[in-house]
């Protein structure tokens, strides 16, 4: 009798795991449970669809349930797994449309339930008109609200990547937008000096930023809808719609109930092959924790690119192959209005927390030769370990063509290069693409000088 | 008495060496000889100035003689060094304007004479109207010809980077342009499959390509000017102007005369600190050979970015510091009409010549998420060593935003990563910047599958 793989969650991680396993072991029965209406879609694309930059919702879907079925998967849409019995190797499910319940036995199980938006425990948070944007169905609901025409003022709670992307999307639609964030600069994963540049870019687009302030309550009208956000400092921000952009936490409830151990970060503990500590149970995607290669800490990073890779790794291993997920270094990139920003490795605060002693250097340069038409400003900041000069982190901010240079820095960090080594790298040069010293190299040169000066002092 | 550094050549390498040494040892006497009219300019920018894309010649100059002088250098413009006496530590010079001659003693000497364009030994090659484009003065002369209005038909001999860039510049000026090249595809440092894409891009701009054919002679009119290029196959290509784009060779005549040893590649032999084999004599830039980190061969790569780095290394060492130039891996990038192309590491032919056994993989993807407006096509090709899977080379070709991704691949190659390691890298992802699997990662995945399939076979 053929073996059965059950996968809980049909987005990036689950979809990849299911596809890979089936591809490697065509005789495997693969059952994929998805409680939503879509599989394998780009959650990161939702803000652009809301903005209208991406025209159709269907463009966000990389693989439909029908496509998965054509590849031999047994896809159960709108079906939620409500319990896991790891002793018996069985999951309990419920069809959300019909209410029908049932069980499915498994030989291998992939837990890929993703994450849930953080909801601050304040009054009014569950009122109508308060939205998270986590799954495609959230996006659909939010867009329907905006399309209704009755929304003019939007307050976004949280100024991280998603918060700002949604804020921009609403601004593109001509709405009045305010973003509230606890930090002094938005996108707290950047250092404050880079965050200040991002703040300026956001303000340039007529998005109001309320910083160093958090949400204290949601004021709810007599109709049961949110009508304002009340901040800790006492400001009242009128809102026809409130969007939560406070980040996410791993969706681990089911795992906890089933006794699948979590790690120190709150995500499901997995090894490099994406095995949980329960035999036959794998996990991948936003719900798991990863090793940060620099801090050596376990961290939860909810990002589609990791989810895809982790799902692939789980699927290959389940399919009889061998693959590992070697960890993360915190690379992230975002476009805020006309400004691009990216980071990799450790920020100053993270490096400090990890116990590193470091110097920093930042340079302002251009994306192409300074004399070449279309050259745009780019700032590269580096964080290098004292004495050793090891590159610990980098942040890039600028206009069109700036931020993707972060990949070069990510690979340098991945390989534990020193800034002295980085400045000698054989990077591509021609006037339409870079100054003769690429901004990355100039930054490394300046960081090296900072390491040298510090060593002498 | 203070020591004296003499630098021969005031462009990228010489200018950098002189500046660095002076900065580190302010008491050093630094004499910089330059036979041309400009210092520290971007030779790579000449085609764009000829095209009119860059408005003014002066924009190409990073540092004028006056700026060097303000930094304390004794700059002798239009002054050619005509002999070196390494026993006595003296150079002989001639002022090209006045004919005055003289000598200058040195404690340290930097030889940074650059390169000279290859001139095929064919009839008519020295006729009027035949130009190389190597130094800014060449560019000035060429542009004056084009500005004269008597040029309508241009034949470019050689379809490498410079040849195509000049061809495009002439096309932008509305001229009829033909490029002749010996190879079956232009830019022979790319594999033929990538070269074919480049050929298509060139033809799309109405530049005629005559491939697998070389120049046999230049037909010279009664006025002493070139009037056609005659190819080996017997074609006669009418030309009001002929541009040589056959590449360059190191300018080593003076060094040879002075007994400064060359390496196997024909460039001046230097160690990692840019010391020649003659005590007190350093060399840097297009005239030296470098170690190719993959083939382990000595190679001459004439590129401004290396010249700058090597000059900096020589200057730091002369200034009492310690710096090394760790070699090259053959990274190059170019924009041909709307097409961007870049390469790093070894091409298939180079890998074969270096004795590697390898597999290849190529993928077509997009620069941004496929559904994102402005996503453009990108092809990434990888060459991976058999069994080990070590990444040996990569080529990237596409439209706006494609080619700079080569830097990520260059750093992966520099660090001797395998394609399996590359596919797990933590590269930046957001829809405006990449698909959820960056094209680099997809290519690595496909290359890894090729390595696996080859290993099983």
Automatic annotation (TrEMBL), chains A, B:
Keywords: FAD, Flavoprotein, Oxidoreductase, Redox-active center. One of its GO terms (molecular function) is oxidoreductase activity. The keyword Lipid metabolism does not apply. The keyword Flavoprotein applies. Residues 333-435 form the Pyridine nucleotide-disulphide oxidoreductase dimerisation domain. Transmembrane segments: none annotated. Residues 4-305 form the FAD/NAD(P)-binding domain. Belongs to the class-III pyridine nucleotide-disulfide oxidoreductase family. PANTHER family: NAD(P)H SULFUR OXIDOREDUCTASE (COA-DEPENDENT) (PTHR43429:SF1), PYRIDINE NUCLEOTIDE-DISULFIDE OXIDOREDUCTASE DOMAIN-CONTAINING (PTHR43429). This is NADPH-dependent 2,4-dienoyl-CoA reductase, sulfur reductase. It comes from Geodermatophilus dictyosporus.
